[in-house]
Amino acid sequence: xxxxxxxxxxxxxxxxxxxxxxxxxxxxxxxxxxxxxxxxxxxxxxxxxxxxxxxxxxxxxxxxxxxxxxxxxxxxxxxxxxxxxxxxxxxxxxxxxxxxxxxxxxxxxxxxxxxxxxxxxxxxxxxxxxxxxxxxxxxxxxxxxxxxxxxxxxxxxxxxxxxxxxxxxxxxxxxxxxxxxxxxxxxxxxxxxxxxxxxxxxxxxxxxxxxxxxxxxxxxxxxxxxxxxxxxxxxxxxxxxxxxxxxxxxxxxxxxxxxxxxxxxxxxxxxxxxxxxxxxxxxxxxxxxxxxxxxxxxxxxxxxxxxxxxxxxxxxxxxxxxxxxxxxxxxxxxxxxxxxxxxxxxxxxxxxxxxxxxxxxxxxxxxxxxxxxxxxxxxxxxxxxxxxxxxxxxxxxxxxxxxxxxxxxxxxxxxxxxxxxxxxxxxxxxxxxxxxxxxxxxxxxxxxxxxxxx
Length: 454
Description:
Layout: H1 21-29, E1 57-62, H2 66-69, H3 78-86, E2 90-96, H4 100-111, H5 116-119, E3 123-125, H6 128-134, E4 143-146, H7 162-169, E5 174-177, H8 189-202, E6 206-208, H9 216-227, E7 232-242, H10 254-257, H11 260-263, H12 266-276, E8 279-289, E9 317-324, E10 329-338, E11 344-351, E12 354-359, E13 366-370, E14 378-381, H13 387-400, H14 415-449
Helix pairs in contact: 3-13, 8-14, 12-14
């Protein structure tokens, strides 16, 4: 079914701005779509055309940091992908960030480039409430993009409830929320699920930034499993980060970032769930190599770890195993071990007769496939694939999908699903900390029982 250009007024059906209930209809209609995307539909950004239409597509960015505008630490840069997807239609009506000077500086840089038209009228506000008080009707957003730190979202508490604020101020307006769902204490996990329930009950279109689900390689793996009617037997994930390039002190402080499993390893926990299904949380077991153990010494840290309280310093290695509700087994090992800039990451998925091995998903994904009837591995590469662009492209296609086109790709990570990944990462962290506690107690008891030296 062809989609009418959204810029043809009078002939189009009501948009999200005209009738918020249309989101609920569209949200329910996606339930019949497969939770995967035909890999052939994932087009590299440099070969993708701007979406049709002539109307301005108003967007509010929440957060003026690296996630939204890029940095040397990685390929994260949501503004760049919105510019390429929407072209001259993009109008960033507001940039929300308490660091006014930083926000103003990034806007100035944008206005010195060919995307000036998207930012020349952007206004900076410290809070969403400030924007709402000062906005006009023409500023009504089509989407709100949340790239602020996760400690300020994913709860029902004032000041840490950006999702609820958006739904209250802009009912029916789509949201994109960066991962993870939150980074508060484990006791707040039920609040994250409560936020998910509010989003579902409101029928709000919401995508969470687990971009690896949108890799062509990942969707090819999904396609093989679905077309061959396979049942996953095991998932084996490994994530080794290049710690030398991580110069943000908060990342090294569990009290501020929630630790590497919750904040960083979340992507591979999410991919594991994407293939393995729901996890039996009671089965999660984990062990860690800690900063104060001999093997945990790091020589190229760019931060002064002595400034971080000892109890808040992050583990160097965390290794976890669990059972899926299906009976399959999952495992994940996260390492703070490599130097340089490139990470080393792999995910293996096993089913009867099949081994699907995804290597280097962040930089240049390679998929190795072993099939029944052969001991040889096929190798597939995916030049120029950009999962960040694909997830933004799918979100905008769903917002613009006023014709309820059944061929529109489904959003692959809802807030509810993201909360389940968040719950798994916390289960891993808590299991590792519990085993460390037991080990220290055992050592203390052994020392107390040892005979005094003569």
